[in-house]
Design the sequence.
């Protein structure tokens, strides 16, 4: 049968509706995008690369891999780049899952984790987060069985925003058996480190079984539209080797490689983004708390809060005021919203809209 049964059974993607610019300014606080444009140096590098796109890109992303390896203090052979880290989530499923295999993941979780489960006919084992939104590591380890081939952990966590401790991630790295691939999703690691959080790689390195850490230039580097993600693989190198064998040869375009190298080098600009984010996250969290909706503790570029009323109409009320925010797609979270951190004027707009959007 073409397509194969699990793929034929998939639901079409729900594309987030793009707002009509004719309706006035729009504050995009629904996808955890960076509210600032890319570094001017990255823009210049991308413009220069545009004049060379008659040529195929470097299939080994040599300059980018070397720059990133130096930045991280790792050998470039430990890295595999991709067209957005979402691709790595899919690749994790492709390398590990047969129909009927089990995938342990947190609940709620990043929406991307559903796709490999569905495409490869696997079975999800969702593990609820704890009351404060943090990963329940004991619960995740207890959900692992002989059929588990893939475990997703998100640290810092999306959509809740909290961090795990280094000890917790070490427990996970040790506790997930060698017959499962452990994927540590670190899409928000730059924000977590800026908030004083641990470097989880140190804990992951102790793992004997297969693992990779997934990171992205979409969030802290302000390059979501460029699509650059990467994996840091551990153990005997077999996971990064598998990622590189599976991937398309020219998977990262010239403009993407040039922009990523330049953005990585502009550390002052990234520092500005991280400082602004921390300041506005603090202001938004205090404003929400003052209005009676204290968010969960967050070290990321978003906050999640319980508005104790159906989220859908509230999200619509914000949208009518030109503010896009997100709901939380998991059973039991129908009254929760997630708001990305914007610039100061975005924080002001959200706090101004609160009384009307949520009622007294
Ligand atoms: C944003 C995000 C990603 C994916 O980012 P890409 O833009 O595909 O690189 C992965 N995981 C989590 C938890 C995210 O929030």
Sequence:
């Amino acid at each position: 049968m073409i397509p194969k049964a699990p793929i034929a059974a998939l639901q079409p993607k729900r594309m987030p509706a793009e707002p009509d610019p004719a309706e006035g300014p729009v504050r995009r606080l629904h996808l955890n995008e960076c509210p600032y444009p890319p570094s001017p140096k990255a823009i210049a590098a991308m413009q220069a690369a545009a004049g060379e796109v008659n040529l195929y890109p470097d299939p080994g992303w040599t300059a980018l891999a070397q720059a990133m390896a130096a930045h991280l203090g790792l050998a470039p052979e430990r890295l595999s780049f991709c067209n957005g880290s979402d691709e790595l989530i899919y690749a994790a499923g492709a390398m590990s899952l047969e129909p009927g295999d089990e995938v342990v993941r947190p609940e709620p979780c990043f929406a991307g984790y559903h796709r490999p489960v569905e495409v490869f006919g696997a079975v999800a084992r969702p593990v609820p987060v704890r009351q404060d939104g943090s990963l329940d590591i004991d619960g995740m380890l207890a959900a692992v069985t002989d059929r588990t081939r893939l475990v997703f952990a998100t640290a810092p966590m999306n959509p809740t925003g909290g961090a795990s401790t280094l000890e917790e991630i070490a427990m996970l790295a040790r506790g997930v058996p060698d017959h499962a691939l452990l994927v540590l999703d670190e899409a928000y690691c730059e924000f977590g480190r800026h908030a004083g959080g641990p470097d989880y790689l140190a804990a992951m390195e102790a793992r004997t079984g297969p693992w990779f850490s997934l990171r992205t230039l979409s969030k802290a580097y302000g390059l979501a539209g460029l699509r650059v993600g990467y994996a840091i693989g551990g153990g005997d190198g077999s996971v990064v080797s598998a990622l590189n064998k599976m991937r398309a040869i020219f998977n990262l375009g010239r403009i993407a490689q040039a922009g990523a190298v330049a953005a990585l080098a502009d550390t002052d600009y990234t520092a500005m983004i991280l400082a602004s984010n921390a300041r506005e996250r603090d202001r938004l969290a205090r404003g929400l708390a003052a209005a009676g909706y204290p968010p969960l503790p967050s070290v990321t570029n978003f906050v999640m809060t319980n508005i104790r009323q159906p989220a859908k109409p509230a999200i619509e009320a914000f949208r009518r005021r030109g503010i896009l925010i997100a709901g939380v797609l998991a059973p039991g979270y129908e009254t929760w919203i997630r708001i990305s951190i914007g610039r100061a004027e975005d924080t002001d707009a959200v706090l101004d809209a609160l009384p009307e959007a949520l009622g007294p």
Q: What stands out?
A: Residues 32, 84-86, 110, 112, 154, 158, 185, 187, 216, 218-219, 224, 229 surround pyridoxal-5'-phosphate (CB under 6 Å). The first strand starts at residue 27 and ends at 28. The chain is about 40% helix and 15% strand. Residues 267-290 form the longest helix (24 residues).
